Amino acid sequence: MYLNIKDNLMFVNDVNKGFHVYDYSNPKSPVRTNFINVPGATDLAIRDNTIYINQAVDLVTATYNITTKKFTVTNRNKNVFPQKQAPNGQSEYTKDNQVIIDWTLIK
Question: Is the backbone of residue 17 left (phi > 0), alpha (psi -120 to 50) or beta?
Answer without folding.
Answer: alpha
